[in-house]
Amino acid sequence: HGKFKYEVTTTKSSPSVAKDDTLVVNGHRILCVKAQRNPADLPWGKLGVEYVIESTGLFTAKAAAEGHLRGGARKVVISAPASGGAKTLVMAVNHHEYNPSEHHVVSNASCTTNCLAPIVHVLVKEGFGVQTGLMTTIHSYTATQKTVDGVSVKDWRGGRAAAVNIIPSTTG
User: Fold this and answer.
1) What Å distances lie between residue 57 and 43, 66, 168, CA to CA?
2) Which one, of 44, 47, 42, 74, lies nearest residue 58 by Cα?
3) Which of 1, 121, 133, 138 is 20 to 30 Å from 100 at the Cα level?
4) Which pLDDT value is given to residue 102?
5) What is the distance between the alpha carbons of residues 71 and 24, in angstroms, rounded to a whole number?
6) Which residues are catalytic?
7) Domain Glyceraldehyde 3-phosphate dehydrogenase NAD(P) binding, which positions (predicted)?
8) How many domains does the chain have?
9) CB–CB of 70/84 below 8 Å?
10) Is residue 3 part of a domain?
11) b or e along 12-44 (b: 16 or more beta carbons within 10 Å of the residue's beta carbon)?
12) Which pLDDT does position 171 carry in this prediction?
């Protein structure tokens, strides 16, 4: 917190660019990537990006996330449950199933799964087992929740302002 340790400025990557698109930190130039509706339009290859963490929530289907590969990335990790045949890997549970020559788009499951799965995995692996279970997670509010009170077509409880709403809801 406070002042940056190094000088931070912005500049244009070339004279033909209308606005500043490069962040300069201590003389190191970093091209800023703008939002794109199609991940294949992102210049991952040009930027030397190898791994993309897909956390927008928009490209959770394997085929959609593969757009990052067409943009030049080598691998994509979807930070949510995925559809369309993407391998789901959870560290300390099944990460050993990762095959780098086969799995170019993988899912890291949900935040709830990443909290619960390793614990259950150890209980089962060590022979304790689990007969029944109940888990509650406390989750930050998300973009789908209203920031002020308003009508929610999906769920009347979801119409409450997110910052003061402690009513159970679903995520992921």
Assistant:
1) 20, 14, 21
2) 42
3) 121
4) 97
5) 24
6) 111
7) 1-111
8) 2
9) no
10) yes
11) eeeeeeeeeeeeeeeeeeeeeeeeeeebeebeb
12) 63
Give the residue numbers spanning the domain of 93: 37-125
pLDDT along the chain (172 residues), means of 10: 83 85 87 86 92 94 98 96 96 94 96 87 94 82 79 78 75 60
Q: How far apart are CA 103 and CA 89, in angstroms?
A: 10
pLDDT of residue 30: 85
**Cα–Cα dist 152/162, whole Å:** 12
pLDDT of amino acid 21:
83
Residue 48 is classified by DSSP as T
168 in a structural domain: no
pTM: 0.73
Establish how many alpha carbons lie within 13 A of residue 7's alpha carbon, considering only the half-sphere containing its beta carbon.
8
